[in-house]
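Re: the multi-chain job from yesterday

Posting the exact lines I submitted so nobody has to dig through the queue logs.
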Amino acid sequence: MAKITKQSEDFSKWYLDTVKIAELADYSKVKGCMVIKPWGYAIWEHLQRGLDKKIKAAGVKNVYFPMFIPESFINREKEHVEGFAPECAIVTHGGGKKLAEPLYVRPTSETIMYDTFSEWIQSYRDLPLKINQWANIVRWEMRTRPFLRTTEFLWQEGHTAHETKEEADAEANRALKMYKDFDREFLALPVLTGKKSEKEKFAGALYTLCTEALARDGKAIQAGTSHNLGQGFAESFGINFLDKNNESQKVWQTSWGVSTRLIGTIIVVHGDDNGLRLPPRVAPVQIMGVPIYRSDDDKANVMGAFEKIKEGISKIKWNDEEIRFEIDDRDEMSPGYKFNEWESKGVPLRIELGPKDFENGSCVLVRRDTGEKQNVKLSDVVEAIPDIMTDIQTGLYDQAKKFQEENTSDVTDYQEFKQKLEEGGFLRSGWCGSEKCEQKIQEETKATIRIVESKSDDGECVYCAEKSQHKVILAKAY
RNA sequence: CGGGGUAUAGCACAGUUGGCUAGUGCGCUCGGUUUGGGACCGAGAGGCCGCAGGUUCGAGUCCUGCUACCCCGACCA
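And the result, structure tokens for all chains:
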């Protein structure tokens, strides 16, 4: 099997090697689109299940809307159309005939959903309306990379409508916190959260909140977004309701989403020179058993011991779920081959069991997060597993958190900023709030404001040295 | 959209100044030996040489055109 390029040699190549060797996805014959393979899709399914539970716990119901959006819908909200129209795929023919009105393949579903919202919402009693859909999205990007940016991708989009701005604020913040918690609990991803600048916000939103992770090459990656859409869409789509005083009001709306990019984020945040390292909560296989034997007798003993472990594991739970344990009993592969294969695929824990171990009544546990090997008595192994899973999950988070902290620094002037930017990472500084400075910084350094953290008149703008209005996080981004 | 690259077996590639039967490694199938960090031997199967034209006695190789994908940048989750 092929070797993976070292991260230090060429991170981008390492990334593509890892996607391929871990069998997450293949290129398809359609430009910018990928085939998500079983190993990659299983990660998506576990991720999806975990997040879906949190979404439902917030009282949001799942729905499904068409992937085709009439052109006139897209055109209804001015900022929105300007933001998205250039990157849309458009269907002009159907059933062999030219369509009277072209259909846009959804680049996001605000417009098609909100046309329907105007029918669903009549009274304040219909509010809040909270729905979510798991769907595919198409955006004709010029530059694509598997999982990080693809022409078609999978995502979840939540859409809510409320009576007041305060409620919409609360919902946008709730979704943001949900993502942050989910990122930590399931994906072991530490993220920074905050607002986007006006320049970076979602087309048509009042403001955009986001989660930002830091990849191991020092680049920022937006992992999730949550928008307070204000009343702009309500205005364009006529989403009005009668309040308690029988007066017509426009709703306040939010939308929020995460995509298959989260898988890309897991790769670039946790991956190492041996390939993928998966957080146990989303790993398709959490524990892989690798038997080692020479004779038929050895094999019988070893497989027998594994069957007992399997039985024991099937009776316990971790985070209220059955533990995903498999035994790699392929006879034609050597143990060494299997070790490498499952390491590159990111399996969190491996159990090795050979004749020597069997004689000693023990087995060897090998952690993917640290590489640490440990002898454990066969009688104790099942019991030890839940804690080890938890250790790996938090261990990956802690490692990533440490990396993020070590690669976040405060800068005060532009020289220092440019210098530190070379090394990568998040840079915190003051900002006067002008889009001109933001633009200049991007033109000159390719760094963008990832997050506007807080209002702060402490210090000076990193670019123009005028009085600072905000603390911001800057970085080069994916 | 600019720059670069590639297109030959499932994958990675080689194929000389055009030359007769299309090559190597990995993988695959069968048999045997192996198995504690990517095992080995033997025998096999597998090709519209991206597509369309052209030059030539003869084209994977030369010429023209096309198409597709990849990589690097600017636009973006």
